[in-house]
Description:
Blueprint: H1 3-11, H2 15-29, H3 31-44, E1 58-64, E2 67-72, E3 78-80, H4 96-104, H5 109-116, H6 120-132, E4 144-154, E5 183-191, E6 196-203, H7 208-215, E7 223-228, H8 231-240, E8 243-247, H9 263-280, H10 285-300, H11 307-317, H12 321-326, H13 328-337
Parallel strand pairs: 4-7, 7-8
Antiparallel strand pairs: 1-2, 2-3, 4-5, 5-6
Helix pairs in contact: 2-3, 3-11, 4-11, 5-6, 7-8
The protein binds zinc ion.
Amino acid sequence: MEKEELKQAFLKLSLNERKSLLKEIEQETDPYMQAIESRRKKLDNKQGSCPHCGSFKYTKYGTDKGSKRYRCKECKSTFTEYTGTWLSRVHKKHLVGAYIELMKQEKSLDKIKEELGINKKTAFDWRHRILSGLENSNKGTFQGITESDDTFFLISEKGSGNLTRHPRKRGGTAKTRGISNEQVAVLVTADRVSEIDMQIARLGRIKKLDIENAIGSRVSEQTILCTDSHVSFKGFAIDKELEHHAIRADLKQFVKKKIYHVQHVNSIDSRLKRWIENQFGGVSTKYLQKYLNWFRTKEILKTSSNYVKEFTDYSLQDLKAWERFKAIPINYKDLLQLSTPN
Ligand SMILES: [Zn+2]
């Protein structure tokens, strides 16, 4: 049907029918509205939980400035559909759908500021609130051959205190050769089905404990670990009683028995690095984990036909997102303490 025909048909409806149809269409076209609607339904159907204590026992408790309100029977606190999520304390919620669409297109903060009429600080904050909501979503068990590898980012204070200046020149090289405490170790793990994990471990060489913290809860007897021959991976595999294939690249060994290798995860590493460099001109270490969350979600949704809707849904499922966003400076401080002695 042509647009003009559609319009004529629309005009044949009564005013009330037109209005209600427009409302339905608006919800259909705004994935953000859809996500919020499904969150409300879930809470109304007693399928949610209290964001304060995790209890499943709560009752409806009126409304609060346009939000639905609920009251927990255990801890007696009240909450709304936004409490705990990254949307908590976000004003101008009507712009969120458009914001996520621009984020999907990877528009710059300047472009977003211009298009939505919000200031750059808000555009920046929203980015990291949303990305905080993605940190814990889609974390299942690694199945079958699972490659894990550490990759390094030079520590960077880009943009700290001033969003428009780049105090550190792009790229740059470490003062010392090899792995030093100027380098942030990121552990990247992926199976060959759909599970993927990207986690900042520490400054310098990773330890067995970092691997345990990052993926310890996501491995099972079905996980076959493929890594380089670093002793931390060996120790982890022994602790977890995993089948482990260590690839000795130092002996020019790259593939074992035609199937055991780390080439898949190496290719993720290089795409990740290119994306961070080309798209953002590097990122500050303080926010690196959030960009890792973003990249991971992009990988998971690579073939999705409804990217914005799924992206929004995932980001809103996490009831610790707001806390995690607030903890960015503390986590950064902790990371600076967490360095492996040379
Ligand atoms: Zn509670």
